[in-house]
Design goal:
Layout (H helix, E strand, L loop, with lengths): L6 H10 L24 H15 L14 H13 L8
Length: 90
């Protein structure tokens, strides 16, 4: 069964990991672009894979044009949890 997380739990999970050595994510990071917080496309992929493993869901960001901030990732995860039919495997 797929694990469910609230926005607060998703955010806390995101903040609890050190995605890049020396880069600390916090509330001020949520609306900045990935490059503004020191994350590149490989780091984003690692974030997505961690959430897929943790929540037992499939996330395909290829069809998502607006994934440029951490808030966008959180919103996508919450949408997938709310409607599993939108899960897409790339």
């Amino acid at each position: 069964m797929t694990k469910q997380m609230t926005r607060e739990e998703v955010t806390e999970f995101l903040f609890s990991k050190e995605w890049v050595p020396g880069v600390t994510l916090d509330e001020s990071s949520l609306d900045k672009t990935f490059s503004e917080v020191g994350l590149d496309s490989l780091d984003l992929l690692n974030v997505i894979v961690e959430f897929e493993d943790e929540l037992e869901i499939d996330i395909d960001i290829n069809g998502e044009e607006n994934i440029s901030t951490l808030n966008n990732v959180i919103d996508l995860i919450l949408r997938i949890q709310a409607d599993p039919k939108i899960q897409q495997v790339g």
